[in-house]
Design goal:
globular; four-stranded mixed beta sheet; two-stranded antiparallel ribbon; Spore Coat Polysaccharide Biosynthesis Protein SpsA, Chain A; about 180 residues; about 30% helix; alpha/beta; 8 strands
Length: about 180
Amino acid sequence: MRGVDKLLERVDGQMLIRRQVQVALATGLPVWVTLPPDQPLRADALHDLNCMHVEVSDAGHGISHSIRAGNAAVHPSCWLILLLADLPEITTTDLEMLITAAQEAPNAIVRATSDAGKPGHPILFPPHLRGELTALCGDEGARDMLKLHADETIFVPLQGNRALTDLDTPEDWARWRLQHIPKC
């Protein structure tokens, strides 16, 4: 993003990180947000929301460090929903569909896909597999774990490419905004 924090970009009239937390909170479930200490504007954007902040001092070493920190903060008997903060199209309804699928298959990993079936995010991890999240390292996230448990994964298609839309460059943001201008 050439020095711009994409989580502070505006979506639906608010900073993306705030929007994502509100989407998650609307499920009625508790929400933990992993935050690096060197990004105080992210924490400021969430100051009045009822979510728990988990500081990740080594977040710069890759997403696995944030996943491990968030996983450690949540009681081990609970499901863990990994909702990346930079997926601007995810809705509360999407999360509720995934949660319903998890309730129907309590031992499975539940993973969102595009409507064409391409795997993406969010991902729900059942309690019995969460111990494996403590061993993650680097910037690959849970990729290897998901491969290992592919036969234990249920896929839930979300509308369009919601599960895949990840905006990493100013050009990505500009194209996405042009596609999301309200039509008169």
